[in-house]
Amino acid sequence: MNELQTQKQEIQKEKRKLYDERIDLNKRLREEARFETTIDLINHTLSEISGKFFSDNTYTLPVVPSANKMIVCLSDLHIGAYFQNVDGEYSTEIAGNRLRQYLAEIKNIQDCNRCSECIVAILGDCINGSIHRTISITNKEDVVE
Q1: What is the DSSP letter of 62?
Q2: Residues 44-93: pLDDT tens digits?
Q3: What is the residue-wise DSSP string for 88-134?
């Protein structure tokens, strides 16, 4: 009888392990599905607003025959954040204006140095959204928009 009880407990343990594995698998599948949905949403939104910041296609750098290369760094844009206080103000429109100014500077650098290639390094914090829960109060737009 004792042996049967031990076997029953072992079966219950294995059943619990299988149940936990199934829960873990469902959790991973759910996370993957959410990630894929977010990527699809980002792609869709980007295709809809592709001309919002650079509607006249002025962002295309002309090809210059040269061995010179340039590196452009983008960081801390916080697109989607909005605030207006005694320290200043910030919005998506301000971010767009700053990006256009930066692009003009990049073009000047390219012209001066005759750069044929531009490498863009994205260093982080380009968008604001649910990934920044502590600053969600400053978000005027959702992370994808």
Answers
A1: P
A2: 877 776 666 555 555 565 666 778 888 988 888 777 778 888 988 988 88
A3: EEE-HHHHHHHHHHHHHHHHHHHHHHTEEEEEEEEEE--B-STT-GG
